[in-house]
Amino acid sequence: MEDVKILEDEAADVRQKRRSKKADPNHVSWKKDFKKSWVIYLIFLVPLVWLVLFHYIPLFGIIIAWKDYDPWKGFFGSEWNGWENWEMLFTGGGADTGGFLLALRNTCVIGLLNLTLAFLPAVIFALLVSQVRFHRFRRICQMLSYLPNFVSAVVIVQLMQNLLGRNGPITMLLVNAFGAPNVDWTNYNSGWFWIFHMLFGIWQGFGFGSIAYVAAIHNIDDSLYEAAALDGADRWQMMWKITMPQILPMILMYWMLSIGLVFKTGFDKTPLLYNPTTNADVVDTLFSFTMRHTQSNDLGISTASSLFQSVIGTTLMLFANWLSRKMSGFSII
Amino acid sequence: MKDLVKSNGRKQGKRRIKGGMVTKPTAGGVIADIVITAIVALAAFICIIPMWHVLMSSISDGYDIYNYSGIALVPRGEVTFGAYKELFAFQDGLLWIGLMNTFIYTFGTVGIGVCINVCAGYALSRKTKLGPVMALLCVFSVMFSGGMAPLYWVVDSLHLTNTYFSVILTECTMGMSMVLAGMAFKSVPEDTVEAARIDGAGHIRVMFQIMLPQCINIFMVTILMTFINSWNSYVGVQLYNGFDSNLYSLQLVIDQFKQVIDSLMSGGTPPYEMYPVQFAGIIFTTLPIMIAMPFFQKQLERGVITGAVKG
Lengths: 333, 311
Hints:
The complex is a heterodimer of chains A (333) and B (311). Chain A is mainly α. Chain A is built from 16 helices and two strands. Chain A has a domain of 226 residues: MetI-like (MetI-like fold, Orthogonal Bundle), CATH 1.10.3720.10. A two-stranded antiparallel sheet of chain A has the order 1-2. In chain A, helix 6 runs parallel beside helix 10 and helix 7 packs antiparallel against helix 10. Chain A is flat. Chain B has a single domain, classed as MetI-like (MetI-like fold, Orthogonal Bundle), CATH 1.10.3720.10. Chain B is built from 17 helices and no strands. The N terminus of chain B is likely disordered. Classes of the chains: A mainly alpha (333), B mainly alpha (311). At the A-B interface, helix 1, helix 2, helix 6, helix 7 and helix 8 of A face helix 1, helix 3, helix 6, helix 7 and helix 8 of B.
């Protein structure tokens, strides 16, 4: 997420340059510029080739979404079929494509849960960890909290399957404490899967997500706290009256930027968890749907689904940027 | 920026906590301290307990751990390393093929990625007439991409599927890393670059010998993240090389092991000694990262903070 913000500088730079072009007094001619910096352009050829091959040609390839793609006939040989792929996606016309709307629903639910609840633990953890007195202890706790962030999706899925499986520790805990049914939650068509998915996401991300907040809290001016202490404020009041207002803009900014990424991150576990017979209704997301159809070389459908994802993602990103600029004066683009 | 990094380093250790110890500690303050410390300790405990459970399960007796439905804080039954022995020999040593492939994917991705990023960073940081166009090409690729399926079409059309290059080339870099590299190179003082140019250093020499050493810290963060992501990712390998188990990375190998073991356990007389093999696989793949992580705590924190305050 923090990556996105870095774009701001770059984009502002570009804008600035574009604006000042006319007024530029030391205007250089193209010929002179090329003579001086042709080596630089040659060097840029390396990333340019990569960008064209693995980004701009695929962008051109999105027209497959309007084709009946046949790998044997190739890209140009395949026939156009109008909006057939899209109709199949949104009306569930094809035999194996009915899952798109369900996948869309699941993506929305998981994304919205992440957006509304999953960002809070990082803030709370940052507030708490910055109040711990023993430096060594605090560093160790912080380091341990980063560790889950570096556990791979495959391992997380295996952990979920073990802990939430039939007779798994979490399942048994729920059975004993709340009388929940003893089922394999990762292979069960129930909305609770979303909650578990979110909890594992929180487990994975809260420690690493707290780094920026901890740094921000440590950057607050000490004299504010000293003045408050002289006036007799206790720590609870200091937290609400000093720390929170100081880091609130940052929390808000992070939250708004995460709107743009809500359908992009955290879905790489779903293709591994997906099981067509037991849990497809709640586990399937746009990510796993697209991946499955790409793997089976069903490129017409999967390109349409890819494109849909990209368009929604970019729209949300622009919206988040607009919102952020409106509310906190901070924009990426 | 510099102050922020410094304050997060050693200096903050000597500073007291925010809003604490300014006045004399009261009884309520001490209780609050205990509660806060306990909650933080609990959070840290929750973070490591699942992996601890896996570690203990992997050295437990197969029958005992299969019939145990709780968190294994200590090994169940007799401590045995049989699971690891089984793991190393499982499916004719597929694990070792996976390990070798992961090394190839990871180092290939990082190596080629660094080359491309350094080139992009240098080109973006120089003042040229086409500079804005180059920057725009990178920025736009962050904004909008075709997604997974068209990329697969390109990789497939280039006949890269079922080779190492499919994964390495698609995952080595992205527009964002190029923009970041450009910012890193821009942070190098122009004087040193000009001095080197006057002394007769060429573009390549300036790029690698003058500029790169000065912004290597920012680059290290990117390299570190690419390395970890590449070690942990399975999507690319499954998508492009999923039909050839000789090209599986470690992640896919342990995924396959889990499925094989699950089907073994669902039989009439399950081979209990095979059950902990899946846990041994998890430990084998995750432990290298877990051991290396504490050494990189500073770099990782700096990476996040650098991103947060925009260099």
